[in-house]
Amino acid sequence: MKKPCLSSLLALVAALMPVSAQAGGSSGVLVDSTLSFALRIVASGPESERNDVSTNRFETTRFGAREALAMLEELSMTNGRVAGPTSTGFPRGARLVVTTGGLVLVVDREGNTLMNASSYLEVVLNRDRAVSAGSFNNNNGDRQATNLMLATLDYDFPGQNVAETVVTRVVAVSGDEGQGSGLVSERNSRRYNRFRDSTSESAAVSGRISGNGSSGSGRVVVDGTISLNGRQTQIDD
């Protein structure tokens, strides 16, 4: 059986990974994408002693996009960082978005920016080291591809602690800071519509991440899932 030459393989990989992705915004996402994550933060609990025997248990806190939004909402009202007359907090339907430029934003249902949360959350896809498979149309640029790569989520909420109650609700910040990374799968597509002279691009990323962090003076371990979903349509000139 004739083996494909290295140059052919490299050409296929280059086709499946568009120039915009290779050049890479600092986040590595192909299109602005809604961020969702669900982490389990585990710490060593306090010791208790009975009959000269010391024991302790693990303490687990759940931390996801919902809890992050609650914390960011509180910070935004405290620091006056919410755009517009939103002294009562984020409107219903607010979500986290990772941009191609590396920002993490809180946006409303219409996509208007409410807060720049990049100081507290960061997501990076290591697209430079991805492996890819799929198909690419050399005539119109249509693409269907799957990429496997490493993703990293960093969170950093200084001054806040696990399950701290703020304004009568538990925000469950799950530790001052931490980082989780792991292998994720991305399914992306690009399709040209010749009738509308437009190009649509979408990308969906999902996988598990794990890592370490700290809560106050104690260590924590991080484990959970992450997903990114985005779509955009551009009218071609």
Description:
The chain is mostly beta strands and 237 residues long. It contains 3 helices and 15 strands. It has helices spanning 6-16, 19-23, 65-79; strands at residues 33-44, 48-50, 53-55, 58-64, 95-98, 104-107, 113-116, 121-125, 131-136, 143-156, 165-166, 169-170, 177-193, 198-215, 218-235. The strands form 3 sheets. Strands 1, 4, 5, 6, 7, 8, 9, 10, 13, 14 and 15 form an 11-stranded antiparallel beta sheet that branches. A hairpin with a 6-residue loop joins strand 9 (131-136) and strand 10 (143-156). Mean pLDDT is 79; it is low at 1-24, 81-86 and 161-175.
Outline of the structure:
The protein is mainly β.
Low-confidence stretches: 1-24, 81-86, 161-175
Gyration radius, in Å: 21 Å
Total strand segments? 15
Q: N-to-C terminal Cα separation, in Å?
A: 45 Å
> Mean of residue pLDDT?
79
Q: Largest beta sheet, briefly?
A: 11 strands, antiparallel
Q: What share of residues is helical? A: 10-25%
Number of helices: 3
Query: Strand fraction band?
Result: over 45%
Shape: elongated
Q: What series of H and E elements makes up the topology?
A: HHEEEEHEEEEEEEEEEE
> What structural class is derived from the secondary structure elements?
mainly beta
